[in-house]
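> example.struct
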C-alpha cells in the first residue's frame, strides 16, 4: 500500500525554507532557469530560482496565470524537499504520530518535543487578525448598533413574535371579560409570563457588548504599538488536552493567496475543518515557567553608567506591556511557522 499526500498550501515562508535547503546543500545555491518560448508582449520578467527546482517566472499580465502556477509548484516542491531532509535528519516531531490514548497531561507532550527543533501538527485552528480587530474598534459603536438593530428586526419578524403581537390586544380583552376572579388572575399571570419571555428574547438579542471609551482607546494603542501587523494562528492538536496548543505569527506576504479576505471567508476565523502547521519551535516554557532575566541583575550589580540603568528599566516596563499581548505560558508553545496547509492522505493498492 503506497501513501501519497496532497496538500493545499495556505501559507508558506519560502525564504525560511530556502535557507534550510541551502544549508543542507552546503550553501552552494545553483541558479537554474527555464526558457519560455513564444511569450508575446513581454517587457520584463523576474526569476525566482531554487536548487534543482524549475524557476518561477513572475511576469506581466499575459504571464500572470502561468507565473502563479509555477510559483505554487515551487512552494510544494520546496516544502516536500525541506520536510524530507529534516525528517531524514531526525529533526521533526509529528504530534499526530503520538499515541494520544497514552497521553494524560501536557508534560508528556513536552517530553516528546523538547529535543526536536521542528514540529508538525494537525488540529483545530483559530485565526486572529489584529489589523481587522483595530479596524473594528475604529468603528465599534456603529457596528454594534447595526448588529443590535439587525437582531431586533430578526426577532420582531419571527412567527412567534408576529403572532404574539397580533393577538395581544385580543387576549387582554378576553382576560378583562373573565368573571371568575381566580381564573382571571391565572390567565393574567400566564399571559404576563409569556410577555416576559418575549421581552427577555429581545433583551438577549440586542445585548450590547460593554466597552468604555478608555478601554477601546487602550486596546487600540496596544495593538498599534505591539501588534500592529500581527496575524496569529493557533492550532489545537488534541481536543481532550485543550490547554496545550501551538501559537504562531504569520507574515502577511507569505500567504499563498494574497487576498486574506478570500481565505478567511472560505475557512472562517475558527475553521470547522482541521488544518496543519509546520515550523521551528521558538518558545517552550517549562512547567515552573522559569526564565533567566538579565534585567533583574541591575538591582544586584548596578552599572556605573548613569544612563544605562534608566534605559534598561524602560525595557522592563516594555516587558510588562508585552505580557498583556504576548504571554506564552506552559503548556502552550510558540513556533516560527514555515507552512500552514490542509492535508489529504491518498492510499493506493500496489499493482
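> example.seq
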Amino acid at each position: 500500500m503506497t501513501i501519497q499526500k496532497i496538500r493545499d498550501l495556505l501559507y508558506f515562508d519560502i525564504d525560511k525554507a530556502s535557507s534550510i535547503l541551502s544549508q543542507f546543500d552546503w550553501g552552494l545555491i545553483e541558479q537554474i532557469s527555464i526558457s519560455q518560448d513564444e511569450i508575446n508582449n513581454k517587457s520584463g520578467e523576474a526569476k525566482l530560482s531554487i536548487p534543482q527546482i524549475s524557476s518561477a517566472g513572475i511576469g506581466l499580465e499575459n504571464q500572470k496565470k502561468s507565473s502563479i502556477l509555477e510559483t505554487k509548484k515551487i512552494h510544494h516542491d520546496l516544502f516536500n524537499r525541506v520536510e524530507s531532509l529534516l525528517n531524514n535528519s531526525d529533526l521533526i516531531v509529528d504530534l499526530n504520530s503520538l499515541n494520544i490514548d497514552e497521553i494524560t497531561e501536557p508534560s508528556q507532550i513536552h517530553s516528546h518535543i523538547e529535543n526536536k527543533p521542528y514540529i508538525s501538527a494537525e488540529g483545530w485552528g483559530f485565526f486572529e487578525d489584529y489589523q481587522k480587530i483595530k479596524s473594528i474598534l475604529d468603528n465599534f459603536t456603529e457596528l454594534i448598533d447595526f448588529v443590535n438593530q439587525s437582531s431586533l428586526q430578526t426577532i420582531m419578524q419571527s412567527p412567534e413574535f408576529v403572532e404574539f403581537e397580533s393577538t395581544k390586544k385580543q387576549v387582554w380583552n378576553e382576560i378583562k371579560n373573565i368573571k371568575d376572579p381566580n381564573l382571571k388572575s391565572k390567565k393574567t399571570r400566564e399571559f404576563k409570563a409569556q410577555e416576559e419571555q418575549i421581552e427577555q428574547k429581545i433583551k438577549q438579542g440586542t445585548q450590547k457588548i460593554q466597552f468604555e471609551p478608555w478601554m477601546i482607546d487602550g486596546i487600540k494603542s496596544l495593538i498599534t504599538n505591539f501588534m500592529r501587523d500581527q496575524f496569529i494562528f493557533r492550532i489545537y492538536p488534541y481536543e481532550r488536552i485543550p490547554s496545550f496548543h501551538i501559537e504562531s505569527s504569520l507574515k502577511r506576504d507569505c500567504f499563498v493567496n494574497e487576498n486574506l479576505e478570500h481565505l478567511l471567508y472560505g475557512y472562517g476565523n475558527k475553521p470547522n475543518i482541521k488544518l496543519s502547521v509546520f515550523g521551528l519551535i521558538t518558545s517552550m516554557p517549562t512547567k515552573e515557567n522559569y526564565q533567566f532575566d538579565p534585567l533583574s541583575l541591575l538591582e544586584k550589580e548596578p552599572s556605573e553608567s548613569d544612563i544605562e540603568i534608566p534605559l534598561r528599566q524602560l525595557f522592563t516596563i516594555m516587558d510588562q506591556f508585552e505580557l498583556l499581548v504576548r504571554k506564552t505560558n506552559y503548556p502552550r508553545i510558540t513556533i516560527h511557522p514555515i507552512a500552514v496547509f490542509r492535508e489529504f492522505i491518498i492510499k493506493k493498492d500496489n499493482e
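> remarks
The mean pLDDT is 78.
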